[in-house]
Amino acid sequence: MSSSLLTCNDLHVGFTLENEFVEAVRGVTFSIDEQATLGIVGESGCGKSMTALALMRLVPEPPGKISGGRIRFRETDLLALPPQQIRMIRGKEISMIFQDPMTSLNPVYTCRHQIKEVILQHGITPVDQADGLIESILAEVGIPEPKRTADSYPHQLSGGMRQRVMIAMALVGNPALLIADEPTTALDVTVQSKILDLLLDLQEKKRMSMLLITHNLGIVGDIAHDVMVMYAGMVMEYAPSTVLFDEPLHPYTVNLLETLPGIDTRKERLTIIPGEVPTLRNIPSGCPFHPRCSRSMPRCAIDSPPLLDRGNSHTVRCLLYE
Ligand code: SF4
Predict the structure, then answer these.
(1) Separation in Å, CA 292 to CA 65, 197, 272, 273
(2) Is residue 167 part of a domain?
(3) Mean pLDDT, the chain, as a whole number?
(4) What is residue 265's predicted lDDT score, i.e. its pLDDT?
(5) In degrees to the nearest 10, what's the CA dihedral of 239, 307, 294, 259?
C-alpha cells in the first residue's frame, strides 16, 4: 500500500507589496506518496513555483511570508523547523532542480567544487571518497567523460550537460523527494525528452518521489501519477493522471489540453488561452478564471467555487459541477 511522503495542507504564501499583503498561494492542499510523482501544472504566475519554494522554505522573507498551512515531510513539520535544521533537509532529503541551471550553478567554481560542497555539507561521504562519488554520480546522469566534466566550469558545458550536472548535484545525497521546476523548458526539444527520460530512470532506480512543475500538461501525462492544476494560486482540478486525461472537467484544464500540439492534427496553429493570468493584486472576484472562461455564467463573477469531490480521487473547483 502506498503511503504519503509529504503532505501539504491549506498552504498560504504571500508578499507585502507597497504595504499591502497579497497572496500568491491560496489554500493549497496535496500529498505525494513514496516513489510517486505529482505534476503541478498551470501557466506562469499561477503559484506553482511559489508552492515549491515554500516546501523548501525558500520563500524570500521579507517581502514574502508563508502565512498559513502545514507541511509534513514523513514525521517532520517542515514549517516548525529552525533554519539550521531545514538546511540539513534541503539538498539532502529534499532536493530541487530549476529551469535554468545557471541559477543553481555558480559560474566561478568548477562542477567538482560545487558537488563536493553538497557532499561535505551533508556528510554524505568521507572527504577522501568525495571525488570518486562525484565522478560516479556524473556517470549515472549520463555524462560521458565524468572526470573532465567535473573539472569544467558551468559555462564550458552545453545547456543539456549543465542540466545533467544540476541533476547530479541534486541527487548526490539520494533524496527522498526531488522537486523539478520546469526542468526542460530552457532546453532544445531533442534534449528535453532525454532529460525527462533520465529523470524517470533515476526516479525508478533511486526509488524517490518527484514533484514536477510545468506549464506543459503534455509532459506530466507521461510521468506523473497525479496531476494538480493551479490557477491564481488555487487548486482548480486534482486527479490521478489517467482520470484527468480521460475526463478533464475544469474549463481551464480543457484549455490547457487544447494548447498541446498534436491533439488535433488538423490544427495549423497552436491554440492559446484568451486573456491573461491575473496579477496578485488583481485577482478577479468569484471564480478567478471567469474573465477567460468560455463557459462562464453570471454567478461565476460573484460566487467563489469550492473544491468539489467528483469521486475517483477527482476534485474540481467549478460551479458547473455543483
Ligand atoms: Fe468557468 Fe464558472 Fe467554472 Fe469558473 S466557475 S471555471 S467561470 S464555469
Answers:
(1) 29, 35, 11, 8
(2) no
(3) 93
(4) 45
(5) -30
> Nine-digit cell at 81?
523547523
Q: Judge if the upstream peptide bond of residue 62 is cis by omega within 30 degrees of 0.
A: yes
pLDDT confidence of residue 262: 61
Ligand 1 pocket, 205 CB below 6 A?
Answer: no
* Pocket probe mutation, ligand 1, options 297, 316, 322, max atoms within 8 Å of Cβ: 297
Residue 131 lies in a domain: no
Total tally of structural domains belonging to the chain: 1
Q: Evaluate whether residue 37 is within a structural domain.
A: yes
Query: pTM for this structure?
Result: 0.93
246 lies in which domain range? 4-93+175-321
Element (H, E) at 30: strand 20-33
Tell me if 193 sits within 8 A of 205, measured CB to CB: no
Assess if residue 264 is contained within a domain.
yes
The residue type of 295 is: R
Residue nearest to atom 3 of ligand 1 (CA): 318
The residues of the chain scoring below 70 in pLDDT are 1-2, 262-271
Tell me the best of 318, 321, 322 to mutate to test the pocket of ligand 1, counting ligand atoms within 8 Å of each CB and taking the most. 318
| Residue burial 247-277, b: 16+ Cβ < 10 Å; e: rest | ebbbbbbebbbbbeeeeeeeeeeeeebeeeb
What string of DSSP letters covers 158-188?
Answer: -HHHHHHHHHHHHHTT--SEEEEESTTTTS-
**CA-closest candidate to residue 58, choices 106, 29, 23, 94:** 94
CATH number at residue 56: 3.40.50.300
* Cell numbers representing residue 84 in the block: 539550521
251 lines ligand 1 (CB under 6 A): yes
